[in-house]
Design goal:
Methylamine Dehydrogenase, Chain H; Immunoglobulin-like; 3 domains; 6-stranded mixed beta sheet; 47 strands; about 0% helix; about 55% strand; rod-shaped
């Protein structure tokens, strides 16, 4: 099997021997069965990510990898690798970079801390593409001449299997969700979908002519494929494994990449020396950026602010500012830059600090109680997709409502769960939970918050506030009503005394008593705090100590009364704290009116 000239676009004075590389790869390795035992190199469990994003450029004619510091835009190291390096894949921890060597049918394992090759893994014949699983545990490489994808355990640097795919597998990309790997079949005009759980092909998707590179959107829903001989990019819906759009305009597209936020795709127009910027929402080209001679591969920086393009024919890498879609730098690299890849760079960190406060402590059963949970971002980066929970424990309580200062909350007792969205450095969000305690004891609200970013101080992500719940205080008001006649020829009247007697056990803080008058009667000379409306005298009382009494008086003129029995009833209508004994909440005074000068009141 040969790649022929279709594996690179026809160029003026083409300088590199792609067909020769395929032939040398076929001679170097006849398949997996002929490979020597690999040198095992343990994958580090964790490593501090690089403080700035680092790009790795595979130079196919120089048998080297150029290491670019994106902060300075300079080559910081040049690493010798195998023959004809064609792809670079960086582990999620940035501890290792894997380089496929198409001329020697091997993978060079680079320790990124020292920029040295620490192992060489024999793989299938003529490896071109490479990708690492999101968990870093598996490396995949295409074997162009063997029509297989080689699967490698990165912990032991050993080949575990070879997956048969289509004719001439070339590019590779792993879905961010880890479930699928996509391989372009350059001679088969298709894409093979590999199930990573079973290492089997579950679908073969027809695309354009001579598909080279492949990239997957951050949400794993779309796959973008550059079709060299169709001058188009195919867009695949991963749910249906069908092409849902074809984007033209790229002459001999080779490289393809997707921005970290998924809003842009990029494709190299190799014969036009340009980079196409594609709006993924509309699948249309929104900008064309002139770059170097023979743009081959593309990589977006981890923060999406830069795109690097490896220009194979002038031995440079173009740096594009994605905000302006302009080239801001051109970096000389090795001989024949064929592929470029970024390491993850520094992982964003956001220190979420949680506090919980109660509105009262102690609080009474039956009284409303509020817990306010504050989630403060102490930085240094924005917390994206933040969420919080507030969980009640201890004595019984009912959650009456829950709200957040941003986002939304749902209640599944005893837990409130809130999606808060982004919280910028220095900002905060609050979750307010209203509860009603229903039993005495200790009620505890535990607040917790998380975000996708690394939290440098996880100990302050969770905290709790406990509240003592007590029996509410009670004060029994014993109502008394007495009447005293005041007789005379001029203005005879009855004086009523409405008494609120506190029998405890707590102090009365306020109370309201009423007195219902006979029909047609009215009250005069009322004590302060008493009013009359529609035959009802209403008197307000202030604090009354346990064992004390408070009196209010008013007069009822006799000439307004009918002869006979006159009855006035006093009633406690409201008081605080609660009255535990309603049996003594009323009292009556009954007088007998014989004439306006003769009245008897018991």
């Amino acid at each position: 099997m040969s790649s022929g000239s279709v594996l690179h676009p026809p160029r003026r004075g083409l300088r590199y021997r792609f067909t020769a590389l395929v032939a040398s790869g076929a001679l170097a390795a006849a398949g997996l069965a002929a490979t020597a035992a690999p040198q095992a190199q343990a994958q580090p469990q964790a490593q501090v990510l690089a403080p700035t994003a680092v790009a790795y450029v595979a130079n196919i004619a120089g048998d080297t990898v150029s290491v670019i510091d994106s902060a300075t835009g300079t080559v910081s190291a040049t690493i010798p690798v195998g023959a004809g390096p064609t792809a670079v894949a960086v582990s999620p921890t940035a501890a290792r970079a894997y380089v496929t060597n198409s001329g020697s049918s091997t993978v060079s394992v680079i320790d990124t801390a020292g920029n040295t090759v620490i192992g060489t893994i024999p793989v299938g014949t003529t490896p071109y593409g490479a990708t690492v699983s999101p968990d870093g545990g598996t490396l995949y490489t295409t074997s162009f001449s063997s029509d297989t994808v080689t699967v490698i355990d990165t912990a032991t640097s050993t080949v575990t299997t070879a997956v048969p795919v289509g004719d001439g597998p070339f590019g590779l990309a792993a879905a961010p969700n880890g479930t699928r790997v996509y391989a372009t079949n350059n001679n088969g005009n298709s894409v093979s979908v590999i199930d990573t759980a079973t290492d089997t092909v579950t679908a073969t998707i027809p695309v354009g002519a001579k598909p080279n590179s492949v990239a997957v959107s951050p949400d794993s829903s779309r796959v973008y494929v550059s079709n060299q001989n169709s001058s188009a990019v195919s867009v695949i819906d991963t749910a249906t494994n069908t092409v849902v759009a074809t984007i033209g305009g790229a002459t001999s597209p080779w490289g393809v990449a997707v921005s970290p936020d998924g809003t842009r795709a990029y494709a190299t127009a190799t014969n036009s020396d340009a980079l196409l910027v594609i709006d993924t929402a509309t699948n249309t080209t929104v900008a064309t950026v002139p770059v170097g001679d023979g743009p081959w591969s593309i990589a977006a920086s981890p923060d999406g602010s830069l795109v690097y393009v490896a220009n194979r024919y002038d031995n440079t890498t173009s740096v594009i500012d994605t905000a302006t879609n302009t080239v801001t730098a051109t970096i000389p690299v090795g001989d024949g830059p064929f592929a470029v890849a970024f390491g993850p760079g520094s992982a964003p960190t956001a220190d979420l600090a949680v506090t919980v406060a109660d509105s009262a402590d102690p609080s009474n059963t039956g009284d409303p109680l509020t817990y306010t949970t504050t989630i403060a971002n102490q930085g240094p980066d924005t917390a994206t997709g933040a969420s919080a929970t507030v969980t009640l424990s201890g004595t019984a309580a009912t959650i009456t409502s829950a709200t957040a200062s941003q986002g939304s909350c749902s209640v599944t007792a005893p837990t409130v769960t809130c999606t808060l969205g982004s919280i910028t450095n220095g900002a905060s969000a609050t979750v307010t939970v209203h509860v009603t305690p229903t039993a005495t004891g200790t009620l505890t609200a535990t607040g917790s918050a998380t975000a996708p970013e690394t939290d440098p101080t996880p100990a302050n992500n969770t905290t709790a506030q406990s509240t003592t719940i007590t029996t509410p205080p009670a004060a029994d008001i014993d109502v008394d009503l007495t009447a005293q006649p005041h007789l005379g020829i001029l203005v005879p009247y009855l004086t009523y005394t409405l008494t609120a007697r506190n029998t405890g056990p707590a102090q009365v803080t306020s109370a309201t008593l009423t007195a219902a008058l006979p029909p047609g009667a009215s009250a005069t000379n009322r004590s302060a705090g008493c009013t009359t409306t529609s035959g009802i005298v209403t008197c307000a009382y202030g604090p009354i100590a346990n064992g004390a009494s408070a009196n209010k008086t008013f007069r009822v003129p006799l000439h307004l009364l009918s002869l006979g029995t006159v009855k006035v009833t006093g009633t406690r209508t409201t008081s605080a704290p609660a009255d535990p004994n309603p049996a003594n909440d009323t009292a009556s005074a009954t007088c007998t009116v014989i004439s306006i000068v003769l009245v008897t009141c018991p």
